[in-house]
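Q: Got a minute? One more chain.
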Amino acid sequence: MKYLLSKILIILFSISSLSTIAESTFYGKINTSYESAKTNSKLDTGFENNSSRFGIKGKFKFSEGINISYQIENEIDPTDGKADGEKVFKERNTFIAIEGNFGKLFTGTHDTALKLSQLKVDLFNDTRADIKNLFQGENRVNSFVGYQSPEIFEGMTFTVNSISQTTGSFDSYGLNYSNGSLKIALASDSNAKGYDNKRFASTFSLDTLDIDVGVLYQTTKKLSTGISENGHVISVKKNVFEKGSIYYQTSSSDIKLESGEQNSFGYTHKISKVSKVFVHVSNLESDTKNVDYISVGFEYKF
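A: Always. Here it is, folded:
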């Protein structure tokens, strides 16, 4: 069924592309930083790539009320030219989709519903302080079929993913609610690379204090042992001066590291609408690991 669906989407995409191209957009970003990492008495320094990428996306009108959309995105590494081992490019979210008042049906390579349920709680996403250091479930997978519903009532949608790979099949589910600055997500993975994950996340604003807050709680069961662990993330962000923002994030989890904790502080200053500079200070600590990171970076979007 998944194979047939993939073929149908490809055929529809091909037919549509032979007709009229409505919209196509080339986009990307360069994000690099110079970092120092101190582990015990050892100090390493150098330039790091923070998931720099480029892509093209577009939408075709297939018929009245039905569109075919696509995205092709790859990670690049401007620091050494190799984003994936010896490979120049590393595939990111790349898919084709049918969209209409019935929702969105898509196939390709994509973030799972559980990964997307992180919302924007992780203020250090794609950097050394990413929550993937402590949490399972931050998966982007191929052989993927997904469905995203329209609003089932105001602000509420759900997502279903089915993934079939040579290493095993699993499903990922998400339920999302949005109302102004308040966003809530509930998600679960079933047998995702040997783990069952359940996650709750929320972001909201404290308008009187001009502060954005994010919270995340997750439980994870390792299927090979039957052992369950949990962890949480709390992040806060506040705009300062005219073009700056300061943010702090604290994470605690036993899921990946025994007694794992990560505390990170950052400051970002916008140069323009498409560029910014930032400074990050982070400590990752567990029963077996203690690493201090300091990063000074730059981002440019196009």
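A: The radius of gyration is 20 Å.
Q: Perfect, thanks.
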